Structures are given as structure tokens and as C-alpha cells.
Amino acid sequence: MLYRLEPRGERSLFWSYGSPVLAVILTIITMMAIFSLLGKPPVQGIETFLITPISTASGLSSLLVRAAPLIMIGAGLALCYRANVWNIGGDGQFTLGALAGAGLALALPNGAFWWEYPLVLCLGVLGGMFWAGIVAFLKLRFNANEILTSLMLVYIAQLILVWLVTGPWRDPQGFGFPQSAMFGAGATTPDFGTTSIHLGCLLAPLLALVLWQILARSVLGFQLRVVGQAPRAARFAGFSNARLTWIALLVSGGLSGLAGIIEVTGPIGQLTTTITPGYGFSAVIVAFLGRLHPVGVIFAGLLLALSYLGGDAAQINLNMPNAITGIFQGVLLFYLLGADVLILHRFRRIRPSAPEAA
Amino acid sequence: MDSELDNTVLERPPLLVLRGIVKQFPGCLANDHVDLTIGKGEIHALLGENGAGKSTLVKIIYGVMKPDAGSMIWNGQPVSIASPAQARALGIGMVFQHFSLFEALTVSENIALGLNDPKDRENLESRIAEISTRYGLPLDPHKAVHDLSVGERQRIEIVRCLLQNPKLLIMDEPTSVLTPQEVSKLFDTLRRLRDEGCSILYISHKLEEIRTLCERATIMRLGKVVAHCNPAEKTARDLAEMMISAKLKQQDYSNKTIHLGGDRLVVNKLTIRSNQQFGTDLKDISFTVKGGEIFGIAGIAGNGQGELMDALSGEIPAGSPMNILLDGAAIGQERPRARRRRGGCFLPEERNGHGAVGQMTLAENGFLSAHVRGALGRFGLINAKRTREFAAKVIHAFDVRTTGPLAEARSLSGGNLQKFLVGREVLQQPGVLVISQPTWGVDAGAAAAIYEALLQLAAAGTAIVLISQDLDEILLLCDRIAVIAAGRLSDAMNVKDATIEKIGLLMGGTHTGKEELAHALPA
Lengths: 358, 523
Known about the structure:
The complex is a heterodimer of chains A (358) and B (523). By secondary structure, chain A is mainly α. Chain A contains 14 helices and two strands. The two termini of chain A are 24 Å apart. Among the domains of chain B are: 2-91 and 166-243, Rossmann fold, CATH 3.40.50; 263-356 and 430-520, Rossmann fold (3-Layer(aba) Sandwich). Helix content of chain B is 33%, strand content 24%. In chain B, a hairpin with a 2-residue loop joins strand 14 (324-326) and strand 15. The interface between A and B is medium-sized, with 22 and 38 residues. Chain A: This is ABC transporter. Chain A: The chain crosses the membrane at residues 21-39, 59-81, 93-112, 118-140, 147-166, 197-215, 244-262, 268-288, 295-311, 323-344.
């Protein structure tokens, strides 16, 4: 029996929402196959990976903590991608944001001013914007491909971070470990009670909702969508491509920077050489899994956060390598992009053409 | 209707017989039990409005699409054509409306690329030369395609088909890009082919052409064959009435009274470089349009119309503000939104992705160009209610067939979307309207509605610039005409002084240097 893929002619509403679900199901099946190939019990493997981490209250709170940066970066990237600007350097903007804010936090005497923390956050945002601004400048001035420049800037940011925490910013009382001093109480992200849930966990979905409203209701959001879907129509309407490219990159860079400074002043508490386990890259998956919709990004961020926790649990309970997280995310993105074909296409059975019985 | 179906007498043995062809697309029955018989050595017209199912039927014959039901008989043998390669092997050639040529390659390289069989490529240049002289299709095999006029490009496609000795040649709207002189040369070629026994299936909606060229016609409407006839025995009006169900309203706008106002749009020595590769630079363009006047710009596609539209709408800024004056204000370097604020409205030729965004709703597409003049936004937010109301107003005033303002633009047929877009600009009550190809791909009923709207707008004092490749349209609507060729605009003439011959010569570029002349006219 043969099947052929043929265009539908219009978007299928069912598959617009069904495709991420299908991708998640296929990912789970594939992960089970991988578990059994590695000699682990597949059902128990999936349970360890996807259910154990969130079966306790502290598990749930660490899910939110992990999801916060993913949602923040992912929402910004979703806006950026809507405008057809392919920023994949979220990790670099995250790092630069963390550095910019942390520089101030380390320089100020602890608890000097009440506005120290807000100022640290602002600098974090500016740091991320600066790093994304370089991408915008190179794209508009030299027509440099933003995918390449934003990716390369990730490595530069990473190297700056390593240089600072092993050199000028190394904690003198840190026994030579490559890390900065802990931030003072005046520059620490507040958390709630005994849980590890912090301000960023509230801020992230809130910002995603704000971005949703901007995209859906504002003239600016309209312009971003038009320039992404039909650049010539944007020119016809008189929307400036340069201005919109700047805005898309500055917004996504700023959000990545904010995620970065919240992460180091919150859960981490200091600068180390590894402040991100690839949040900026996972956020690319988050943006697509969430259908480039800020609200979808909230759910996708939770799922990807779970993959980090599941990876940790699989390491501890099943003796699996750390790479299992990356494999899960990669398989998920693969199926998601594959399943998206169904939005604009359908399978049709080919009947063998009636034989001309002679 | 039955008598019309029956009164064709087939004098010649049939080459191709189609019976009961059905093709269903999502939401649209494109071919509904279509029967078609093409005799050997005849020029057979396939006539119908856009969306009548002509292209689908032709794609089925050429093996691009498979029918859902029905049978095909070729030379007395039942066949099912699975691919264009198989169609070519049977002896079916097709010249598409949109050419598939590589701009950077030469004529003979392009032809070689279209040949499947390596042995066809032997002695290619001498065979090209032989065919082009035999059928009056002059071509220089060594010239690069981007240096050629559209007419010459079409000749490449025809020669490419003829190299394979086709028994049936399908031509899809071949004259839409040609000058009148080029059209008559093409007809000579087609008649010569017919005399040698080649059948031609000629697809068009230009009635006069079909009456001069074709011996038999099959007329389609809404996916069905509605009539067969001998087009020479019918008037163009009869054919048009068969093609569209309703009786045609008599269209004669020559008696309209014109009240000219002051100069509303002045273009003064406008020279710009095209921002497209292989685009056309504009050279020293000057014209003036008064209020109440419709100024036509005729010309063959690709002679600078797109660039002129971009320069007037503000997508490409002019060299100096004084190059363009709108109601006396120097706007040559203003951005599109500033021009709209001053009363300029624009509608480019391409609907999808330029004048409209297919994936967006009609309401959003209304907002796209009308938000400045229609005050559809406030404090940086879209005023959703006013935006929907504006779209609803356009839909109502222009009788756009759609489910409402929240329908996606691409769900509309071409003609309906064009009515919406024209309505979007007209209802903004522009002082100056620049509109390109307003009825391209639009059925006769929608075209009449668009013409009516433009005339009413002019009567209300708007200065209208109509850029079109359709000479009938320009002669019908315009008060004065100029012709654009190779980026230069001819002097304007009154429509009463304009003849098809005069315009045709200008289209070929006779008012410009010899270099362009040699380039645009057949050698």
C-alpha cells in the first residue's frame, strides 16, 4: 500500500495543534526504544525521565525554576522568529546579561542602596540587548547572516565569562576555584518561603503574556508579523525593516539577558564557568514547540525543563549519561519539524490505477 | 445550450479525446466531467474566465496532474499520462504562461537543459537555427536570457517544444506579454505549424484573438464545458456571454464627462536605479496628472513598471524631493506612510506578499495600508473594532465574496481578493491613486466593478495613474496615455489620438535609442 504526500491547499487547524502532541508521543516512543537498546527497562526509563521528577513538591518547584529562563528566552525568540530574524544566540545574550548585572553587583558594597537589585536587573537586560545589538548592526550594515553571527557571539560570551571568573572577578577567598564571590543579599533574586521558586518564575510567564498582547494587539506587533510573513508587503505598507530587525533582536536579547542575570543572582548565587546548560539553545526548541506563540512557549518551556530534570534523574537512578537530555531535546525537535509537514500536507493512499484489462 | 454543444462538426480525425475528466480540489470541483476533442491540425481554443478550470485541464493533459476520473484517447489509443516526460514522449509540448528559463544562461544552454534525451542535444545550434528560420522565430543561440525581451523568451520556449516535433502544442495565455506586432508574428508561426499538421490548444480569455486565430473553441465555466463553437462565426460579445453566465453590461465609458482639476501628481525627471537584479532602471521620467484624470501607462511587462510603482509609493526613494510632487508638496524622498498621510494611495501589481499578506485576515490586510488614513490605530494599539468595520465596509461596498473580515486573504479567489484590495485603496478617498494591473487574473464581472470604482473615484476629483499591460483596459478607461519601454516614458498623448499601432511601436521602444529598438523588436 502506497501513500503520497500532497498539499492540502490551506493550513489544517487540527494539525497546527496536533503536530506538537504527535511529536511528543513519537519522542516518548523513540526514547523508550533508546532505553531498551541501552539495556534499561523502557517503561521505567520513561517514568524516571518524565514522571518521577515532578512527583514531589520540591520536584515541581525545581521544574518552575528550570522553566523560568527557558520561557523568558523562548518568548523573546518567538517574537524574533515571527519577524523572520533568526537569533539563535540566546545563550550568548544570557551570558552577557549575567556578566553586565553581576559586574555591578560585585562592584557595589553589599546592601548599599535599596535600588541595587532593580539596577542589577536593568544592567542584565542592557547586557543582553548589547550582545543582540551587535547581531543587528552586523546584519543591517554588512548584511551578515544573523544565524552565524549570533551563534559565534555565544562562544565569545562564553570565553569572556571564563576569563573573568578565572581572572579579574575570581573570588579571593574562593580557594582558587574559577568562580566569583557570592552576591550579597542586596543583589539576590528573592524567593518565596522555603521553596526554591523565585521572582523569575513569576516574571517569565508574565512577560510571555505581555509579549503575546504586544504581538496580537499592537501596531508594532502587527509590523513584526507582516515583515516576517511578507517582507515586500511590509515595505509597501511603509514599515521599516531595519527598525523592526533592531526591535526584534533587542527585545529577544534583553529577555535573554534578564534570564541570565536572574539565574546568576538567584539559583546559582555567583558567577561560575557554567552558568547555562544550553538554555539559549533549548529555547529555540521551546519557541518552535510553542508554535512561536508566547503562550505556547509557557507550556513548551515546562516540557523542556522537565527534560533537564529527567536527564538528572536518569543519571542518578538509571546510570544513564548526561547526553540523554540533549538526545531527548533533539529527537523532540526532529519530530516536531517533521510533524509540521502535516499542517500543510496530507497523506493520501495511492490506489494502483485500474489495470486496462485487455 | 444543447444546440451549441451539438453544432460542431468535426471535419478532421481526432488527435486527442478527453472524456468525463473530473478533478476535485479541496473545496472546489475544478473539472466536472469535461469532454474535449482536438482534431489533427487544428487550432483549438480553450476559453474561460480565470478559475473556470482551463489550467487544471491542461495540466492533466500535460501529465502535471492526475485526474480523479475520466479517460484520454491519444491517436485512437487509450492512454494515461503520468508525467510531463511521458506527455513529451507522446508528442505533447507545452509553453507555459510563466517561463522556466535561467537568466544567466544563453539561449542554447537553456534549450539544452530542457531536453531529456542526450542525443537531442547533438547539433543543437544548427537545429535551433533551422527551426527558428522555418517558423519565423528569430533567436540568437549565444545571447544570455537576461538580455532578451519577453517575446524573445517566449520564442525560446516555443523552439524548445518544436525541437521535439510535437503533434500537439499547448499554449497557455501566450499573448499576455507581447506587443501587438509580436502577437501577429506569433500567429503567423502558429498558422504555419497548423498547416504542417501540428494541433494547437490555445488557452486565452482574449476574445478577439481567438476569433482571428482559432477554428474551434471549447468554452468552460466553473469547471464544466458549456459550449463548443466556431469562434469566427460568433461576435466577441457572444463569446463573452457564453464565458460568463450573466449578460454583459454594455461597457462604454467614452461619453463620460471629465472635470479636470489642478495638477495633483507631478513627476519630474525621475531617475532611479532598480533594487532588483536584472531589474530596469528608470530614466528621466516626467508626467503630470490632474485631478479627475485617469493617466494610463502602457507597456510590456518588465520595462520598469514595477520600479515606477515602487518609486511613486515610496518603497524606493527618489534622488531629490522635487522629483515627485503630490498636491504641490515635494515628496520624492518621503516614506510610504508620509505619502499616504498626504493623500497618496497605491496598489502594486502583485497581490500575494506585496499588496496583501495571504496568511493574514482581511481585517489585518485592511489595516496594512489603510491604518494611516483610516485612523485604525491609537496609542500604538490596533483599534480592532474600527479595523473590522473598515474591512466590512470594503467587503460590502465592493461585493467581495467571503465569509467576513476575519477570513484569511488567501482563502479568497484572485478576483475577490483584488476587489477587496482595490476597495481598500478607493475607500480611503485618495487624492492620488497609483494602481498597477488592477484586473490581472480577475474575471469579467469583477473587472467591470473595478472599472466602475475607478471612474467614480476620478469623477470625484482624484488623479489616477493606471499602469497596465492590458491595452484594451487602458484605452477604455484613460484620458491620456504614455508608454513605458526600457525604463523611459514616452510623451503623453490623448487617448483619442492613440492607435494600437502607435502604442505598439512605442512599446517596442521606437522613441528611445536604436539599441533598445533592436532589442525589443524581432530581428
